Amino acid sequence: MDVDKVAGVFDRAAPTYDRVGIDFFQPVGRALVAAVRPQPTDVAVDLGCGRGAALFPLADTVHHVTGIDLAPKMVELTRADAAGRGNVTVVQGDAATPDLPSAHFDIVTASLVAFFMPDPLAAMRRWVTLLRPGGRLGISSFRDVPNRMHDVMAVVQDYLPPRRAPKSVFDADDTVAQLLRDAGLREVTTTHLSFDTTFEDEEQFHRYEWSNGRREAWEHIPVEWHAEARTRMAELLASYADADGRTRFEANIRLTVGIK
């Protein structure tokens, strides 16, 4: 997706992004913040801040944090959420080329953002310039671990034109770590985060799909096919459900941190 399309998708998702009762972005954001070891004197920036999953945990500790997001509506809503916090600034901008001062920040975070960058290495090198010497950069990304949620989400692909997914630097721990090294970071570490996400029913799962970047796929499916796709998803969800009727999936996340 180009920049305008990405902005449009997340602008439309913003009102319900991380607001459908699924605890997913928050634990990832908290874990990433813990991994970069924030200090009370730190100045931080959270790139692609969304609705604040990493932004607000940073704000709880650091002296000041700036959140930047491409989607105007996301910025508007997150800025409203930050009202009353004296140490949070939220601005609109492109995470790939943030218009921010060099050598100004002690911490740079990008939670579930880096894989959206058209040129991840170029973006990472720009991010490194934002850091002061000794500053920490941390990103979170999805681990390529097969699980049942992938099976459910794959239903959507049957209603879209076939496309071959190119090999990605984010496919493996080693290549992500090397990305940070190539960008100029040292002492790069990788940790894994796993936790369960629980869906009450297909309706909640469907609302979740439309509340994040996954909505882009649904927007490309003809409306007359939506009901059939949802029925197939509901059948899979039911087959995976526990005795209480809820469906639990394991989320597998990678946290990669380096020092300038």
Task: Give the CATH architecture.
Answer: 3-Layer(aba) Sandwich
Distance from N terminus to C terminus (CA atoms, Å) equals 30 Å
Helix content: 25-40%
Major sheet attributes: 7 strands, mixed
**Strand pairing plus helix content: what structural class?**
alpha/beta
Please name the CATH topology: Rossmann fold
Helices, by number, come to 10
Keywords: Methyltransferase, S-adenosyl-L-methionine, Transferase, Ubiquinone
Domain Ribosomal RNA adenine methylase transferase N-terminal: 28-159
Organism: Micromonospora siamensis
GO molecular function, one term: rRNA (adenine-N6,N6-)-dimethyltransferase activity
Main attributes of the structure:
260 residues; alpha/beta; Rossmann fold; 7 strands
Please provide a written account of the structure.
- The chain has 260 residues and is α/β, with parallel strands linked by helices.
- The protein has a single domain (3-146, 165-199, 250-259), classed as Vaccinia Virus protein VP39 (Rossmann fold).
- Helices cover 36% and strands 24% of the residues.
- The chain is built from 10 helices and 7 strands.
- The protein has helices at 3-13, 25-35, 55-59, 72-81, 120-129, 148-154, 173-182, 202-210, 215-219, 226-240; strands spanning 43-47, 64-69, 88-92, 105-111, 131-142, 186-199, 247-259.
- Strands 3-2-1-4-5-7-6 form a 7-stranded mixed sheet.
- The longest helix has 15 residues, at 226-240.
- The mean pLDDT is 95.
List the helices and strands and how they pair.
Layout: H1 3-13, H2 25-35, E1 43-47, H3 55-59, E2 64-69, H4 72-81, E3 88-92, E4 105-111, H5 120-129, E5 131-142, H6 148-154, H7 173-182, E6 186-199, H8 202-210, H9 215-219, H10 226-240, E7 247-259
Parallel strand pairs: 1-2, 1-4, 2-3, 4-5
Antiparallel strand pairs: 5-7, 6-7
Helix pairs in contact: 6-10
